């Protein structure tokens, strides 16, 4: 594989973009759909995230000849993202009051992490490596 990019299906693309830009990504592509934003691609630091509205997915797949129920399946598809950051406190400050799903903890695999729910509904784990003891 060369790259894996999450395509997150959301109700409102515009509501989701600020969460990712607060974490340092920049919007590199926007596609309008039915008077609003249907798709946005955000990139930075070797990371790429794509957000697409459910309505846009429905229209794209409907015109592609895909089975009628495929858009429903994509709309129900879920993913949780695990994002490694340089500074966990700075990342949490940047995203503001995103609801915490899993409280801050230090794991056996050497990460300090907290899981939040992004405005688009996606669960996002933010984690940084714990300094190794000497």
Structural account:
With 134 residues, the protein is of the alpha/beta class. It has one domain (7-129): 2,3-Dihydroxybiphenyl 1,2-Dioxygenase, domain 1, CATH 3.10.180.10. It contains 4 helices and 8 strands; from the N terminus they run βαβββααβαβββ. The protein has helices spanning 13-22, 54-64, 68-76, 88-95; strands at residues 7-10, 26-33, 36-44, 47-53, 80-84, 100-106, 111-117, 123-129. Strands 1-4-3-2 form a 4-stranded mixed sheet. A 4-stranded mixed sheet has the order 5-8-7-6, covered by helices on one side. Helix 2 packs antiparallel against helix 3. The radius of gyration is 16 Å and the shape is elongated.
Structural class call reads alpha/beta
Rg, please? 16 Å
Give the % helix: 25-40%
Mean pLDDT, nearest integer? 88
CATH structural architecture? Roll
Detail the poorly predicted runs. none
Output the helix-strand order.
EHEEEHHEHEEE
Main beta-sheet strand count, sense and barrel state: 4 strands, mixed
Highest CATH level, the class: Alpha Beta
Number of helices: 4
Chain oligomer state:
single chain
- What is the terminal separation in angstroms? 37 Å
Which sequence of strands runs across the widest sheet?
1-4-3-2
Assign the CATH topology: 2,3-Dihydroxybiphenyl 1,2-Dioxygenase, domain 1
